[in-house]
Structure formats: structure tokens, C-alpha cells
């Protein structure tokens, strides 16, 4: 399906048009993919439809079809390049009128990252649209100084929040917080999305 970038309304969001319907979506890969390398990127793109189908299926099982596409896109962006399992919940019934959450465990085996990560995706109807967020937590064996070098091209340093550095990820892919943990680094990635 052809996608066309129309506008960039805010950091971490890309406005796109798909099949004549406008929606804002996280860019193709978010956060952890910056360390995966080109081969992992290609592999993730090949496995992407199955991940998207899993998340859309979970939303539909809950009866939350209104935000299923957004939930699917967030889930696909969160899990790209990983083996994963997800547990989904809806806030209340009717599901199409309430928030939906997916808690995800992931295992990566890519050139840039081997290990486990965790994430949360969230989507909720808001008036005539759906809004959502994703958060990924990934512990790297490298120091935070080394991890900065793995961030996507175009990444810029952001604010420091109570001593924690943030980075605006290149390609409008969201935000990363780098937390030193001994000689390693925990990367917390955040992105948001709106489906119109």
C-alpha cells in the first residue's frame, strides 16, 4: 500500500495518507531498531505483516475494532525485529469506546542488540479519532555513551530531565531516554500516534 508523507505535526509523529484516509503514525521503525543494522531492518520488514496482523487480531477479539489499525501499527513498530508475546486488555465495555492496552515481552537477536526488552502500547478513541502511545524498555550491554552512537542519523540531544538525558530520534521516530546502569545502558523509547 502506498504511503505518502503529508505533514509532520509534532515530534514523534508523522502524518500520512493511506488509501485516501489520513492518519498519523509512528515512522516505519521506532527506537530499538536504531541498533539493529541494515540486515535486521530488512528482516523486520519481511516479518512486519504478521506482527501487524497479531495486534489487529487482538484488538478485534476484544471488540475494539475502531482503533484496531492504530493499535496494530503501534504494535508492529514496537516489536519489529523481535520474537514477542502480547497480553491485551480493554478498559471497559463497550470496548470501542474505551482505552486498549497491550503489554509486550520481546526477544531480539540482531547484530546491534541481543536480549530481552519490554513494551507497552496504548490506544484510545478520542472524539472522531484514535490516539496511542508506545513505550519500549531495552537494556543494552554497552555504555550510554556508546549507545548514543547507535541512534538514528539526524538524532539530536533533547532536554535533561532530572539528570536523565533525552534524545529526539532522527527521522521523527520519537524520543529516547538513556539511563546508565553500572557499565550498561537502559534505553526507554517513547512514541505517539494519532489516527484520524
| Tally of alpha and pi helices | 3
- Kindly report the average pLDDT value: 79
User: Can you tell me the residue ranges where pLDDT is under 50 for at least 5 consecutive residues?
Assistant: 1-45
Helix content: 10-25%
Indicate the proportion of strand residues. Answer: over 45%
Can you count the beta strands?
11
Q: Encode the helix/strand succession as letters.
A: EEEHHEEEEHEEEE
Q: Which structural class best describes the helix and strand composition?
A: alpha+beta
Characterize the largest beta sheet: strand count, sense, and whether it forms a barrel. 8 strands, antiparallel
Q: Taking strands numbered 1, 2, ... along the chain, how are they ordered across the largest sheet? A: 4-5-6-7-11-10-9-8
Shape, per Cα inertia axes: globular
N→C terminal distance: 18 Å
Cα-atom radius of gyration: 16 Å
List the helices and strands and how they pair.
Layout lengths: L2 E5 L6 E5 L2 E5 L11 H26 L5 H12 L2 E9 L9 E10 L4 E13 L2 E12 L3 H5 L7 E6 L2 E5 L6 E7 L2 E12 L1
Antiparallel strand pairs: 1-2, 2-3, 4-5, 5-6, 6-7, 7-11, 8-9, 9-10, 10-11
Helix pairs in contact: 1-2
Describe this structure in words.
With 196 residues, this protein is an alpha+beta fold. It is built from three helices and eleven strands, in the order E-E-E-H-H-E-E-E-E-H-E-E-E-E. The strands form two sheets. Strands 4-5-6-7-11-10-9-8 form an eight-stranded antiparallel sheet. The protein has a three-stranded antiparallel sheet with strand order 1-2-3, covered by helices on one side. A hairpin with a 6-residue loop joins strand 9 and strand 10. Helix 1 runs antiparallel to helix 2. The chain starts with a strand and ends with a strand. 38% of the residues are buried.
Amino acid at each position: 500500500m502506498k504511503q505518502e508523507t503529508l505533514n509532520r505535526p509534532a515530534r514523534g509523529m508523522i502524518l500520512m495518507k493511506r488509501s485516501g484516509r489520513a492518519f498519523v503514525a509512528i515512522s516505519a521503525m521506532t527506537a530499538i531498531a536504531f541498533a539493529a543494522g541494515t540486515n535486521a531492518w530488512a528482516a523486520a520488514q519481511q516479518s512486519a505483516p504478521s506482527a501487524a496482523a497479531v495486534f489487529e487480531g487482538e484488538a478485534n477479539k476484544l471488540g475494539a475494532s475502531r482503533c484496531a489499525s492504530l493499535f496494530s501499527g503501534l504494535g508492529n513498530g514496537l516489536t519489529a525485529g523481535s520474537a514477542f508475546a502480547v497480553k491485551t486488555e480493554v478498559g471497559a465495555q463497550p470496548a470501542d469506546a474505551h482505552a486498549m492496552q497491550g503489554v509486550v515481552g520481546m526477544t531480539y537477536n540482531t547484530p546491534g542488540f541481543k536480549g530481552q526488552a519490554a513494551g507497552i502500547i496504548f490506544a484510545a478513541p478520542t472524539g472522531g479519532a484514535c490516539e496511542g502511545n508506545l513505550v519500549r524498555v531495552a537494556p543494552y550491554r554497552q555504555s550510554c555513551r556508546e549507545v548514543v552512537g547507535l541512534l538514528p542519523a539526524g538524532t539530536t540531544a533533547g532536554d535533561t530531565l532530572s539528570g536523565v538525558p533525552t534524545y529526539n530520534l532522527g527521522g521523527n521516530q520519537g524520543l529516547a531516554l538513556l539511563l546508565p546502569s553500572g557499565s550498561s545502558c537502559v534505553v526507554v523509547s517513547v512514541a505517539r500516534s494519532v489516527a484520524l
